[in-house]
């Protein structure tokens, strides 16, 4: 019997495993994949993510294997751009990183194992339910490993399965398939003129959505596009192709070679309406819909929610209290931390569907440094609002008037 079984060893699962195991909790971490494994992603680590990775003692390693980003540039649909250095509020670091997920997730997993978590690869979990043996309730986790049935027991489960909703639907925690947004990316080598800039492009990208160029080295980049309308017929790969062939990207990628195929993947960003716990189970990261609705970034919230879940799980285990009220306290902690920011970002996204509004915003940002700074902070996940949102308050917050 484990204290906690964590299903999914992405950033959310491995962070939860690390924070629990380092406090002496008996942790089992399960993943259907063998590691190192890739995950389709832009590979961007915002200052929010860097802050948790620093706390986990991983930033120096990541600086070595990744690329440090110190500036930020946004291109409007009319090709005009505005740029600024990264300067965050709230004690967040003044830089971002780009680290391929193949390396990042492996490093995080090894951190969790070093802290004492036991890892089982190739364990595909298909079901979980609460049972009682000798009057002691626990979670029974069932799945398949290398073609054979396997089962595990734990006092508490943490679900960290990302955008893959099969287990949440089967366990009855999600009642229906949530709506998703779509994104796709490919790696390019021999790219000229890459520096320490994180580039977001609304020119050549579908709206609401954007294209990105995130350098993974001085001559290589992760290039991708996200489309942020809930549209089942939207093709991420189709958007990627038209973004790649847009005039500005053709110029930027002249002489560059694509390394590997373009890959698309869905994103859940329904935290504002989705459950964050079930019976004896906490949901972390994208399994709780924790992806920024404006930017599609989710690694930062995966890591942060993992740390918050570990605190709550530790208290539950210590007090042997898994009541609905205790589980709801975890939900409340997530809402206090992320609700206002996500409402604000969802509001800004609606605005980003209009090319004229984006053109005007970039022009205004070029005249006003405070707005430029605010834009950078919003996009990198700095929390700009703390109160219940109204459209007027959101606009004032963005323009720095309140
Ligand atoms: C194209 C694209 C670009 C993106 N770019 C960025 C970016 O630049 N920056 C950023 O911060 N975010 C980005 N995101 C979002 C980010 O990738 C996710 O939000 C993040 O990976 C969520 O982390 P997680 O740990 O919750 O889930 P994941 O990283 O998805 O990990 C889930 C893990 O669970 C395992 N699993 C799933 N189901 C089961 C099961 N039944 N049994 C056992 N194991 C299971 C999977 O194998 C996987 O290892 C992007 C997403 C996409 C699609």
Overview of the structural elements:
By secondary structure, the chain is of the alpha/beta class. It has 3 domains: 2-66 and 98-177 and 269-339, 3-Layer(bba) Sandwich (FAD/NAD(P)-binding domain), CATH 3.50.50; 180-268, D-Amino Acid Oxidase, Chain A, domain 2 (2-Layer Sandwich); 346-399, no CATH class. Helices cover 36% and strands 28% of the residues. It has 12 helices and 18 strands. It has helices spanning 11-21, 47-55, 59-65, 101-114, 166-170, 236-244, 247-252, 299-319, 324-351, 355-367, 369-379, 391-399; strands at residues 2-7, 27-30, 44-45, 67-69, 71-75, 81-85, 96-98, 118-120, 123-133, 136-145, 148-159, 180-189, 197-201, 209-217, 220-227, 257-268, 277-278, 281-283. The strands form 3 sheets. Strands 1, 2, 8, 9, 10, 11, 17 and 18 form an 8-stranded mixed β-sheet that branches. Strand 17 (277-278) and strand 18 (281-283) form a beta hairpin. Helix 1 packs parallel to helix 8, helix 2 (47-55) crosses helix 8 (299-319) and helix 8 (299-319) packs antiparallel against helix 9 (324-351). The longest helix is centred in the last third of the chain and has 28 residues, at 324-351. The termini are far apart. The mean pLDDT is 93. Bound molecules: flavin-adenine dinucleotide.
């Amino acid at each position: 019997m484990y204290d906690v079984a964590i299903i999914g060893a992405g950033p959310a699962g491995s962070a939860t495993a690390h924070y629990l195991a380092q406090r002496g909790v008996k942790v089992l971490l399960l993943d259907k994949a063998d590691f190192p494994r890739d995950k389709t992603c832009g590979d961007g680590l915002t200052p929010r993510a860097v802050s948790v990775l620093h706390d986990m003692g991983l930033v120096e390693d990541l600086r070595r294997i990744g690329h440090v980003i110190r500036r930020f540039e946004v291109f409007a649909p009319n090709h005009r751009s505005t740029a600024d250095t990264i300067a965050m509020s709230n004690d967040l670091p003044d830089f971002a990183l780009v680290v391929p997920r193949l390396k990042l997730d492996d490093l995080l997993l090894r951190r969790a194992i070093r802290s004492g978590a036991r890892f089982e690869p190739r364990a595909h979990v298909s079901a979980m339910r609460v049972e009682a043996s000798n009057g002691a309730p626990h979670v029974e986790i069932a799945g398949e490993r290398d073609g054979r049935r396997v089962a595990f027991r734990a006092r508490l489960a943490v679900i960290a399965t990302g955008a893959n909703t099969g287990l949440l639907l089967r366990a009855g925690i999600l009642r229906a398939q949530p709506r998703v947004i779509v994104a796709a990316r490919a790696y390019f080598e021999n790219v000229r003129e890459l520096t320490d800039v994180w580039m977001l492009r609304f020119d050549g990208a579908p709206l609401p959505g954007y294209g990105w160029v995130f350098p993974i080295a001085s001559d290589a980049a992760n290039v991708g596009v996200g489309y942020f309308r809930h549209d089942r017929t939207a093709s991420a790969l189709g958007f990627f192709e038209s973004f790649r062939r847009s005039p500005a990207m053709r110029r930027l990628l002249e002489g560059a070679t694509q390394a590997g195929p373009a890959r698309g993947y869905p994103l859940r960003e329904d935290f504002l309406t989705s459950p964050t716990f079930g019976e004896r189970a906490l949901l972390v990261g994208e399994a709780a819909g924790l992806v920024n609705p404006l930017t599609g970034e989710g690694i930062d919230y995966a890591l942060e929610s993992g740390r918050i879940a570990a605190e709550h799980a530790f208290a539950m285990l210590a007090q042997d209290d898994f009541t609905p009220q205790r589980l709801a306290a975890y939900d409340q902690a997530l809402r206090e931390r992320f609700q206002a920011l996500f409402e604000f970002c969802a509001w800004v996204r609606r605005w980003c569907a209009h090319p004229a509004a984006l053109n005007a915003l970039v022009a205004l940002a070029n005249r006003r440094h405070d707005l430029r700074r605010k834009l950078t902070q919003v996009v990198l996940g700095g929390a700009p609002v703390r109160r219940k949102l109204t459209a007027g308050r959101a606009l004032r917050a963005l323009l720095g008037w309140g």
